[in-house]
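Subject: for your reference before the review

Hello V.,

The reviewers asked for a structural picture of the protein, and I figured it would be easier to keep everything in one thread rather than splitting it across files. Below is the amino acid sequence we used in the manuscript, unchanged from the supplementary table.
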Amino acid sequence: MKSNLHNVSYSAYMTTSFSQSNRPDTLYDLLSLASQQKGEETGLSAFFPPEKYRQPKQWSFAEVLQEVNQTANMFHALGIKKTDTIAFLLPNIAESCFVFWGAASIATVFPIHPGLEAYQIGDLLEQSEARILVTTAPFAESNLWDKIELIRPHLSFVKTILQIDLVDYLSTLQKASMRFTLRKKGKAEKISGQEIGDFNRTRAKFSEDSLLSAPPQSQDIAVLLHSSGTHHEPEIRPFSHEKLLLSAQKLLAEPTGDQTTAIWSSYPISHGMGLVGGNIMPWLSGREIVLGEVSGPEMIDQLGIGFTLDGKPFPNTHMEGPLWQELPFLREIQTGESLVDLDKVEKITASHPHVEAVVVIPSPDNQLGWVPVAFIQPKKNIQISPKAVYDFLVKAMPDPAMIPQGIRIVDQMPLSITEEAAIYQLTRDEIETTIRKISHVTKCKAVCHSDGSWSAYVGLSSPTHQEEFLQKTKGFPVEIIF
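And here is what came back from the structure prediction:
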């Protein structure tokens, strides 16, 4: 198989600066390069259930590539083409990694969050037109298969369902007990045109040496990700191989310390940070990925985890993580006497016929507190002006307070893998830009806190200007720190 890899050292990928000539073109290129340069080093450790953390199963980078080749070749034999979608609904187990990388090597992969309701999962599967679904077999401590059973009769477009039997992870005694419990449920109902098979037994039949299909290209859609569904029904967004690699590269700009430490993410692959930070960035920087449910310093030390991607850092003094924290972003703001729902503002703004994408964020205002500001990406080959959008919104908004006080037309939204990351980046930049425009400000750094509030660290050309500055910002809902 002809590779798109460039002849460069793997160490080139352990920096924070990449050019077009020394970055892998696709996810498969990245894994192939890791296998070539770090072949026998541990690339993946995984354990299930949690009590098995002392004996995680491990794969070298070379072995991971073999697992991925075998998975991709199975999908190829099942008739999957580049334009097809393979969906999966799995916990953070080793197979979720193999499914993700294997599916992205042959088609488009769609990880779905296990916590969604059955009807939401069904809607997402229908929108994506997934031909294959990989999920767990019935398991006493998981309701994933129960959700799929509820919607299976409506999934006529899904031709194959491959099950991963979590019972295989258990001890001999646990297996016997679990099998007896599950036997009472009976077998899944047969549906015409839809086959159910065992994931691991099916793929064991296929070659692990190389891909049997044409490798992907950098602009191919590698992944579909859905929004959280917290504020509205989940929406699907496509991401190319190139964009995913750029997002992972961007994370490497964060302080990541010792290159030998492993990285663990509590987020599932369906979460943007779980995907990029937990499953792409580690291998881009030559690190080991840890998959499993981790809780507490003892498990961290046992597994050699140096960084976490989690909302809550562990009480472990030698840890330098987490690299990422979930922050509760403001989606309802007080604008004068009105309570403004930014998601509603976003939805109405997105209804403009020339708008491709929109993100609405809060901006500090000395008179009104927070005011909405809209960042708008026009549709391809369409030019729109802020005034045209404003005139549209004046008529469309039910409350004048909902009309964005600033409309920014951008060529492309920030390169952020999650909606939350884009909101954070834009809000931070908006606060800093607003404050820097005030006389005598020499520097400003905005910080979001765990309760959703913001602070701004401000530098002035002279302390004598502090009183004047505070007068101009006394209405800001932002803590000012000199």
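For the response letter, the relevant points are probably these. The first helix runs from residue 27 to 38. The first strand starts at residue 42 and ends at 46.

Happy to draft the paragraph if you're swamped.

O.
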